[in-house]
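Deliverable D4.2, example record:
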Amino acid sequence: MKIILKNTSDLPLYQQIKDQIKTAILNNELKAGEQLPTIRALANDLQVSVLTTKRVYAELEAEGFILTRVGKGSFVAPENLELFTESKRRMVEAKLSEVCRMAHQLGIRADELHLMLDLLFEEENEK
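Output generated by the structure prediction step:
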């Protein structure tokens, strides 16, 4: 599992780690049942506090992405299609909200934004 932390990001470290683990699970790079590094090992690898990685695992577990078994470690939870679908939608909504704010600041109208999105979808479908 490769996690890249950016000091220039506006996101806190725990959020960057959590988002990258979540994305790896959603993209099936981390498969159901796969064991994650221990909280301490991940903290050492990333050179962050154990409290930071502990928070990441606690939040991922609360959201249903991982399971922790006492004395065994943390594992990717069995696939929950509904949870994964909802999580993917939330990720897209967050990005679209960001785009809408930027468009509004730049004076781009909603109909222009829709056209841009349609063109981008067409380009993606042609790939």
